[in-house]
Design goal:
Blueprint lengths: L1 H24 L25 E3 L2 E3 L8 H15 L4 E10 L2 E9 L5 E6 L5 E5 L5
Antiparallel strand pairs: 1-2, 3-4, 4-5, 5-6
């Protein structure tokens, strides 16, 4: 009697821990790689987490931005994060999910930085030599 009670208790604990793990993890094929971002885990997919934007955390805009908005975002980013730098070139690339923009900025000593702005207005900064 005592042995069957211990076995039942252990089985119930294993099921409880497994149930909690499945609820947190998302079940099969929802871990690393498969559908990451589809259920709100990880940035970049539908329902993804917040994205880096203009030097702080801000949610991505749900609709694609136009060229004028991209130029405004680039100017704000340079003014806030790259003092002394000036926007030199602004290039638009058409992609399946919307237009992306590459901005070349030059520093006071001739340094070159590239900013990539995705269709939703998120900015990534790269050093010289990095392009699409």
């Amino acid at each position: 009697m005592k042995r069957s009670l211990v076995v039942t208790l252990v089985a119930a604990m294993v099921l409880a821990v497994t149930g909690i793990a499945m609820a947190e993890w998302g079940g099969p094929y929802h871990g690393h790689g498969f559908h990451r971002g589809m259920m709100g885990r990880g940035a970049g997919g539908p329902g993804g987490g917040p994205c880096w934007r203009q030097g702080g955390w801000a949610p991505a805009t749900p609709t694609a931005i136009d060229e004028a908005k991209a130029k405004e975002i680039a100017s704000e980013y340079v003014g806030k994060n790259l003092p002394g730098y000036q926007v030199e070139k602004f290039v638009k690339f058409d992609r399946p999910r919307g237009a992306m923009y590459q901005v070349e900025v030059k520093g006071p000593k001739g340094e070159v930085q590239y900013l990539h702005i995705n269709p939703w207005g998120n900015v990534r900064s790269f050093g010289a030599g990095r392009t699409f």
